[in-house]
Amino acid sequence: MASKFPIISIPAPGFEDVCASEAGRLLGVHASAGAGIVSFSVDTLLQACDYIYRAQTPSRVALELFSFKPAKGLAKAVTAQLAKVSLKDWLPEDATFVVRADLDIEGRQELEAELGETIYESTKAKVDLKRPDVTFLVVVRGAYGAFGIDLSGDDLGKRDYRIFLGPDALKGHVAASLVLLSGYAPGQLFLDPFCRSGVIPIEATLLATRRSPHHFGKEKFLFRRLPALKQTDWDAFFAKIDKDVSGDATNILAMDPSFNNVSAAKKNAKIAGVIKQLTFSRTDLEFLDAKFGKHAVDTLVTLPPQPAQDMPELRVDSMMKDVFYQAEFVMKKNGTVVIICRTGADTIKKYAQEYKFTLKNERKARQGKAELTVLTFQR
C-alpha cells in the first residue's frame, strides 16, 4: 500500500474553500479546493476515518485510487486505468463489493453496472448490493474524475437530529459551512435571530464543544467494513476522539420570533446532545438591543424568512431592515454577519449598506437543486 493516501472530500457546492480549510484545521494537512472537490493526503487510513467522524462540512469522503479526465466514453476511460491498479490490495478473494457513481452528468446506473462487471471479471469477488465490504466509487465534477473507495457513505451532510423541520431547512453540512465561513471561534457570542429548527446554532455548538455531528451514528460509516481495517478496535477508536468533547456551556444563542420554531430547535438540540450547551430565546428583532446591549455580538449567522404565501415580500423586506438596524447596535466592531437566502439578496445588501456594513464576500451555493446566495458582511 502507498506511503501516502490521497483523499477526496465532496463539500456542499459553493463551499469548497471552507471544506478545505476545515480539513487543514482538523488534520494539519494542506488541502486543495477545486470545483466541487477538496483533495488532500493522509499518512494512514485511520487519519481519514478520524476526519470523516469529526468533519462537519463534507457530504462524502473517499480514498482516491486514480484520477482521470472525463470524456464521452466514461466507462472506457475508467476501465483503461483500472487495468493498472491492483484491486486485490483492497479486495481480498472472500470480500464483497459494489460500484457506486457520484456524477454531475447522466449515466450513473449504466456506469455502475459496466464497471461492476469489469471488476468482477478481474477479481472474481462477489457483488453485494446491500452491505458490501468495499464500495468502489466513481466521482465526476466537471473536468475532474476520480475512481476510489468510498470511506464514508453517500450523505455525511445528513444529520440524525434534523427531525423537527420547517420549510427551507438547511442540511447540516451547509449550516456548518456557514458557521465556519463566518470565522466564528468558540467563546465568542454567536447569534442566529431566525433559528427556525436550530440547525445553524446546533452546528455552531457542535464545533464549539468538539462533538462529532455523527456522535450517535457511528455504525453507518463504510470504512468500518473495509478489509484493510478489519483489525481496528472501533469502540476504542471513537472513544479516544470523544474524550475531547466539552460539556461546558457555550455563548451561542438560538433565537426566533416563533414559539413553534424555538420549540423545534430545542427538540433537535436534545437529539443532537447539545441542549445544555445552547441557549434558546423566543425574542422579536425589535428587542435585540435590550437583550444584548451595545456592541456585544461577535457573529450573526442566519437564514432569514423567505417570501411565501403566508409571508409577503414587503414583510420580509421590513424584517431585513430591522436586522441591520439592530445589528448596527448589538454587533461588535469588526463583527461578522453571514446571511444565506434563496431570494432578496439585493434587498439585504441595500440595508447592510444603509447601516454601514461592508460586503466582504458574495457566493452562490446549492442545496439539492436550489440555488442560494451567501452574503458575508463586516461591521
Largest sheet properties: 8 strands, mixed
- Main sheet strand line-up: 2-3-1-4-8-7-5-6
General form: elongated
In terms of structural class, how would the helical and strand content be classed? alpha/beta
CATH fourth-tier homologous superfamily of the largest domain:
Vaccinia Virus protein VP39
Distance between the termini: 51 Å
Number of strands: 15
Topology:
Layout: E1 5-11, H1 16-27, E2 32-33, E3 38-42, H2 45-54, E4 58-68, H3 74-82, E5 96-103, H4 108-123, E6 126-127, E7 134-141, E8 144-150, H5 172-181, E9 190-192, H6 199-209, H7 234-242, E10 252-256, H8 259-272, E11 279-282, H9 288-292, E12 297-302, H10 313-330, E13 331-341, H11 345-354, E14 358-367, E15 370-378
Parallel strand pairs: 5-6, 5-7, 9-10, 9-12, 10-11, 12-13
Antiparallel strand pairs: 1-3, 1-4, 2-3, 4-8, 7-8, 13-15, 14-15
Helix pairs in contact: 3-4, 5-6, 10-11
Detailed description of the structure:
- A hairpin with a 4-residue loop joins strand 2 (32-33) and strand 3.
- This protein is 33% helix and 26% strand.
- The chain has an 8-stranded mixed sheet with strand order 2-3-1-4-8-7-5-6.
- It folds into 2 domains: 5-150, VC0802-like, CATH 3.30.2130.30; 172-211 and 246-378, 3-Layer(aba) Sandwich (Rossmann fold).
- By secondary structure, the chain is of the alpha/beta class.
- Helix 10 packs parallel to helix 11 (345-354).
- The protein is elongated, with a radius of gyration of 22 Å.
